[in-house]
Structure formats: C-alpha cells, structure tokens
Amino acid sequence: METLVYDIYELDQFHFDMNLQKMNLESLRSMFLIASHDLRAMYIYILDIYTRLLLYKESLYDISDSVLKEILYIYAPIAAQMGLWQIKEKMEDIAFEMMYPDQYQRVQSLLYEEKELSEQFLHTFEEDIKHQLDTIGISYTVTSRTKHIYSLYKKMILKGLSIDQVYDLFAIRIITQTELDCYKVLTLLHSHFQPDVSRIKDYIAVPKSNGYRSIHTTLTIDDIHKVEVQVRTEEMDREASVGQAAHFIYSNFKKSQRMTDQQRKLHESLNNTLQDIQYGKSSHIDTVFENTIFVTLNKKKIVSVDNGMVLGDFLKKQYPYSYRKLAQPKINKKKQKDSYVLQNGDMIETRFQTGFFITVR
Hints:
Layout: H1 2-11, H2 21-35, H3 39-59, H4 65-81, H5 85-99, H6 101-134, E1 140-146, H7 149-159, E2 170-176, H8 179-192, E3 194-195, E4 201-202, E5 215-220, E6 226-233, H9 234-242, H10 244-255, H11 261-273, H12 284-288, E7 292-297, E8 301-306, H13 311-318, E9 330-331, E10 334-335, E11 347-349
Parallel strand pairs: 2-6, 7-11
Antiparallel strand pairs: 1-2, 3-5, 4-5, 5-6, 7-8, 9-10, 9-11
Helix pairs in contact: 1-3, 3-5, 4-5, 5-6, 6-7, 9-10
C-alpha cells in the first residue's frame, strides 16, 4: 500500500506545457513508467483528477486554462486508453464547458433541439428493430446513446458539419449472446433498412488495434434520418466498457485468494464507476503519441515502444539474454511471428519453451 500511495504522489507531480510537444511526450513516458509498477495507481489518479474537476465546477472556484487544457488534451485521452470511457467523456464535457461556456451552450442547445425533434422517431425505430429481432428467435438487449457534447463539437468543427449531418448523433446498440447472432442481426437489419455501404465497419472480423470488437452500420430510415447501429456480444460490450487492460486487472484481483477487503472494495468501486461506459476516441492524443505506442507485457508491465517496431525486435530488447529460449509469443491471445508490427494497446504474452510464464519485474 505504501508503494501505491507513493506512485500516486509521483503522478501528481507532473505538469504539461501544451506548447512543448516533445517535453510532454517525455513526461507521458515517465508517467506510464510509474504506472507500470501498479496500474491501480493510474486508475486512482485519473479518478482523483475527475473528482477534483467536479469540485471545481460545483464550487465555482477559478481554475486556470492551462489545467483545463491538461485535463482536456492529456488526462481525458489517457482515461480513454485505460478504458475509463464514461469518465473521459465527462471530463471532456466539464473542461470544455469551463473553458468555452458560450460554445458549450450553443452545441448543447442544438443537441437538445435535435433530440426533441428525433425522440418520437427514435422510439418508433427502436420498437421496429425489437419487433424484427423477435422473429429470428435470439436473446438480445437494445439500448440507445446520444453523442456527448465535446465529441459532437469536435466533429462539427473538424469536418465542417451541421448537426443534421452527424449520422452518429444518436446510436442504437444491440447486444447479443454469440458472434453468429451478431451477423444474423446485421443480415436482418440490412434486409429491412437501406445501409450506407461506405459506413459498414466489421470490427469483429478485423478488431481495432486496442482490441475493440463490434459491428457498426449506418441505416437510412427515410429521406431525413440516418441512424448508426452497433451490434456486439455481451463480452465485447464488457470489454468496450472497461477496456481490456482493466478487464485483466480486475479478473486477476477476483481470482486472487489473498485479496484483502480493501482490494475488494477498490475492485467493486472501480467496477461501479465503469458501468454503462460508451466507446470513444480522441484525436489529440494521437498527435502527442505520434511516434510512440504503448503495449502491455504479460498483463503486468506497460512498455512504450517506437511506432513501427516489430515483435522480434521488441522481444530481443526485453529479453537480451533469454530471447532464444522463448516459445512463440501471443498478441491479443493469438500467436504471432517476429515480423508482426506492434500496435497501440497490444497485449503481449511470452513463455519459456518449457511453458512457464516469464516473470516481469
């Protein structure tokens, strides 16, 4: 516990200058090095930043733009990478509102107006989907979500869109039991509604580099409305909610026979925080990490590597004296060759040829 507290203290010493990208990159590398000691430190620290942000908002204390920019452009994207998607979205919206209140109010008003106009249509559409799903005899759950304000603002500004041109403003999510059911649902949707072929994305067949799996399709309902529909299994939805790294950490906590009451409370608290989280993506962190990606080694250690590094070079660097004794490694649970190019968020598993895990210290 003492080490965990010290790691959190160390994380709180970092400050960023948004005009100095190279310095920020070095600070971020140092942050992830500290977090690799115990990933709980970074989770607790992000939640602490979010709590302080809420206190600032409720108390109306002055908070500098530089701190808000750190939250918006550094900590919110880190929260997203760690699977804290709901926290990420709330941090973005609060920081955006405090920095640019006029723009926030304008986007919020547009969103409310559009939601009010579309509410009856969305309800009818959702009921129609449920009726169609009942005909194929599968177990399913249908939910809906509205795009959060900062994400909507970025999309309108960066792409020059009006709000009625944002097709994923409202989305329907269909949760099934199996992958086969996902494709049954997709076939059913495309047989009853006109799909936008350019916006069909099968992340089940080809997952994103961070392991995200789902099927996205945009359906044309009438001459006015287009709606994005996401189809995934319960397991995929859980991974999209808490992130794969968090999923591994919590699973390990749960399996541990030595888990203390404090660890159980932490486990339950973080799980409660991560409920009903929506998947998101930030473009700013891609700029900060332009030439660097992060991978996880044996579920314990986060390692920063140069973008474009192949698996063989990575393993030689990590195990200079025992590289030839390694069995074929796995990336995201699948065996890969040394020529595989590492992707951001890859989960790497290594074993000795005898079959034992290599200890990462």
